[in-house]
Amino acid sequence: MNIKEILEAELLKHGIKWCRRCDSRASHKRGFVYNADKFTIHLDSEVATRSTLHRALHEVGHCVNKEAGLRRYEQEANAERFATDTMRFYGVVVPRAVIYRGVAYVARKKRHGDNIKNAR
């Protein structure tokens, strides 16, 4: 299975759509999921590398994880874990830089709460 096929398999498995571009938000490059709509990931990047696969699976993780009642950093940690575990399940090595970036992101969210704009 190639990288794009892995993402497509996970989307199909969980009944999730992939919106590559809409006018609802400018952050398609980073990826996001609306809280009200847990059936669509919004991500315009091509999924061709292990890094972009991890980013896409992170968004899938937000759709499939139970997030009610969790703090934002806990939601992000769960999404990171989902992405990493899923890649490993398919035999894809997760780059160290991707893991470090995820750990740093969750740590920033924990320090700054839901106002991530101030965490940069």
Can you describe this structure?
The structure is a single chain. This protein has 120 residues and is mainly alpha-helical. It has one domain (3-119). It contains 4 helices and 2 strands; from the N terminus they run H-E-E-H-H-H. The protein has a two-stranded parallel sheet with strand order 1-2. The longest helix is centred in the C-terminal third of the chain and has 18 residues, at 72-89. 27% of the residues are buried. The mean pLDDT is 85.
Side-by-side strand order of the widest sheet: 1-2
Based on secondary structure, the structural category is mainly alpha
Low-pLDDT residue spans? none
Please give the alpha-carbon distance between the first and last residues: 36 Å
User: What proportion strand?
Assistant: 5-15%
Q: Tell me the count of domains.
A: 1
Radius of gyration from CA coordinates = 14 Å
Number of strands: 2
Number of helices: 4
User: Into which percent range does the helicity of residues fall?
Assistant: 40-55%
State the order of secondary-structure elements, H for helix, E for strand. HEEHHH
The 3D shape can be described as: globular
Q: Major sheet: size, sense and barrel closure? A: 2 strands, parallel
Average pLDDT number: 85
Structure characteristics:
single chain, mainly alpha, 120 residues
